[in-house]
């Protein structure tokens, strides 16, 4: 299958990481478009691409345009892109959002032969060049018509990723799941660091120690189900320890309620392990 040339609109976290990974995988990055001229120029220079200061015009420069912009910008940008489109022949466009379906690109889908789809990296990308390290091994949720879907599946495999079908999947629920997996553990980590510092641990040690602890928990998950990987008082049934934690959290009733809810859900998780073993 011939590799399409690529344009990326939005040299932010996801757009830069995918741009760098596609370039390393042998794809031609024909253009970078976006809002901030410096960000556009810097990534374009790095990837030997043309810098397009008017984002909508990038669609005429490449076979496949990736809209790597915030979710709420996808539809208005797709609308602007229609205005700039010279020819739809052989062109395709995807967005990277897990929360939005293909309808966010409907102004483009209405342009004759122009193919549209969703290419959602089920991954978390930080700012900066280090983010590219997360691309390999990523699961990519894909929603597109069959022929275009095959091309996007190949794109995911060329990135050393694992494509899967997102058609018919409830996007809001799917994306809420992704947020639970990738974002809220970090919110909980921030609470943990604050609590450890309040308890009297030196703040920098609290940050490094708690972050290393989370890293250990994630390592334990490799090759194990959550019910088998989890440790701690709720999974052991140490009710006395849980009560001491709840007492210690009295000054922050919201956090105390959150702790209780998580302890209850953790208890519900562990019996499954015992039933499975029986
Ligand atoms: N980051 C992740 O971990 C991740 C993972 C999976 C999927 N995604 C998806 O990827 C997409 C981008 O997310 P992100 O996290 O990469 O966001 P981000 O880091 O904020 O980057 C967004 C990019 O879009 C540009 N932009 C914003 N408004 C624009 C506009 N009106 N016209 C043109 N360009 C505009 C920004 O320009 P500036 O350069 O001026 O800021 C920036 O380059 C979203 O759909 C998100 O759901 C992200």
Report what the structure shows:
By secondary structure, the chain is an alpha/beta fold. It folds into two domains: 164 residues, NAD(P)-binding Rossmann-like Domain (Rossmann fold); 97 residues, N-(1-d-carboxylethyl)-l-norvaline Dehydrogenase, domain 2. Helices cover 51% and strands 14% of the residues. The chain has twelve helices and eight strands. An eight-stranded mixed β-sheet has the order 3-2-1-4-5-6-7-8. Strand 4, helix 3 and strand 5 form a beta-alpha-beta unit. Helix 7 packs across helix 8. The chain is elongated, with a radius of gyration of 23 Å. The model has no long low-confidence stretch (mean pLDDT 94). The site of NADP nicotinamide-adenine-dinucleotide phosphate has 27 residues, from helix 1, helix 3 and strand 6.
**What composes the largest sheet?**
8 strands, mixed
What is the CATH homologous superfamily assignment of the largest domain? NAD(P)-binding Rossmann-like Domain
Specify the helix fraction band. Answer: 40-55%
Task: Give the total of domains.
Answer: 2
With strands numbered from the N-terminus, the spatial order across the biggest sheet is 3-2-1-4-5-6-7-8
Q: What Rg do the Cα atoms give? A: 23 Å
Please write the CATH class name of the largest domain: Alpha Beta
CATH topology of the largest domain: Rossmann fold
Give the end-to-end Cα distance, rounded to a whole number of Å.
50 Å
Structural class: alpha/beta
Residue runs with pLDDT of under 50 for 5 or more positions: none
What are the distinct ligands in this entry? NADP nicotinamide-adenine-dinucleotide phosphate
Characterize the overall form.
elongated
Our count of helices gives 12
Number of strands: 8
Spell the H/E element sequence. Answer: EHEHEEHEHEEHEHHHHHHH
Mean pLDDT: 94
């Amino acid at each position: 299958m011939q590799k399409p040339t690529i344009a990326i609109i939005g040299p932010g976290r996801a757009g830069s990481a995918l741009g760098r990974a596609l370039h390393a995988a042998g794809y031609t990055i024909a253009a970078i478009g976006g809002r901030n001229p410096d960000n556009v120029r810097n990534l374009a220079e790095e990837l030997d691409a043309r810098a397009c200061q008017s984002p909508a015009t990038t669609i005429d420069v490449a076979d496949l345009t990736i809209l790597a912009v915030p979710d709420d910008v996808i539809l208005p940008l797709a609308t602007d892109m229609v205005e700039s489109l010279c020819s739809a022949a052989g062109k395709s466009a995807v967005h990277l959002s897990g929360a939005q379906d293909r309808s966010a690109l409907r102004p483009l889908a209405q342009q004759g032969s122009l193919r549209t789809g969703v290419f959602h990296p089920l991954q978390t990308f930080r700012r900066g060049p280090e983010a590219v390290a997360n691309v390999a091994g990523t699961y990519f949720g894909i929603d597109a018509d069959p022929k275009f879907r095959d091309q996007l599946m190949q794109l995911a495999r060329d990135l050393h990723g694992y494509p899967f079908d997102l058609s018919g999947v409830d996007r809001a629920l799917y994306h809420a799941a992704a947020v639970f997996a990738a974002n809220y553990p970090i919110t909980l980590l921030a609470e943990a660091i604050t609590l450890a510092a309040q308890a009297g641990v030196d703040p920098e040690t609290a940050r490094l120690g708690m972050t290393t602890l989370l890293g250990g928990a994630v390592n334990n998950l490799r090759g194990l189900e959550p019910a088998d990987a989890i440790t701690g008082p709720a999974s052991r049934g140490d009710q006395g320890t849980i009560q001491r934690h709840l007492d210690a959290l009295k000054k922050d009733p919201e956090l105390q309620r959150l702790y209780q809810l998580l302890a209850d859900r953790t208890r519900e998780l562990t019996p499954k392990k015992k039933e499975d073993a029986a």
